[in-house]
From TrEMBL:
InterPro entries named in the record: Ribosome_uL3_MTase, SAM-dependent_MTases_sf, Small_mtfrase_dom
GO biological process: methylation
Sorted UniProt keywords: Methyltransferase, S-adenosyl-L-methionine, Transferase
Protein name (database record): Methyltransferase small domain-containing protein
Organism: Kaistia hirudinis
Superkingdom in the source lineage: Bacteria
Pfam families: MTS (PF05175)
Domain named Methyltransferase small: residues: 149-261
SUPFAM superfamilies: S-adenosyl-L-methionine-dependent methyltransferases
Molecular function terms, GO-annotated: protein-glutamine N-methyltransferase activity
Record bears the keyword Repeat: no
Entry GO terms, CC: cytosol
Amino acid sequence: MKADADVVTEAGGVVRRLADAANLALLQRPGPTGGPFWDPRAAMQLAASAPAFDALVIRLLLAGRTERRDALERLLGPQDIATLEAAGLLVAGDGGLASRLLLASFLNRHVLAAPPHGHPRFQRDLAPYCGPESLWYGRMLSGRGPFRRHLDLCTGSTLMALLPQAAETVAVDLDPTVIPVARLNLAINGRSDIALRFGDLYAPVAGERFDFITANPPFLPQGPDEALPLCGAGGHDGGIVAERILAGAPAHLRERGEALIYCEGFGGPAAPALAERVAAARSPDFDTVCWIGSTANSDRAIFGLVALWQAAGVAEEQAWQHWAEIAATMPASHYHTMVWQLRPGRGTFSVRQLGPG
């Protein structure tokens, strides 16, 4: 999905016009599991009772259906279709054209992202990822600020870069397949003021400081032979990327700055396994709080993780053996969702529960 800057800008404008004309902002709601995407069946039911133009956009961008070229050109216009093809969003197949990515609308922002696991259009290596936690975490960021400078690491779909109020935002990602989609998403939202940089976490912003640092990094334990795409690769136990982000934040925060980092992970009933490592390596000049959003028995998360490894091509027996090796190295009876908060202070560390809701 590569295109020059002018094509990306034009394609972003086309997607925004389609979303606005079809009233997609009024259809913003999580999917049946709290995720950002519509269930394809529900989207098709919605399309069945919508006007022809709206129905076509819903089928194309929300349901992920293949549509005939002549129908697309008749209702959307041949120039817009050509622009979306040039940008790599529309691709030919099954007698028509389909969108490689689905549109997720959240708090009046529109971002294209890969269909989730279980969706008929799911592809293992397609990026960027956008999941239920993106919406939960995003609500914490929306309207935060105003900040002078905001840094969003592991930006993916750029949703977290779009939500806080900042005079200057820098969005960073390491996955080369994400960057073209990120550029398109920024164009969809008219955010030419957000600087997109390619690289490994803080490397593209060496020596720079920010008032607010955000990240929704990979947090899944890597499978045998690294059998997860980059967007889901959190190292051996899932915590390596979040750990690196927290360790590097003090050098990149301004006076009175704050880092707010989302993560998930296995652990005991009271805290994630990552907490012990973060506590041991914390800065004496910053207070660190691990805010626990939810804690559950880990069985569901384990089965889901093994299923993802198998979807990536790992044999079932090998997947379960790999999990046993991981579980032997850390507490793994529970699974936590959490937000790590880092602010200037006296080096204190605590694990606390977020309030209800």
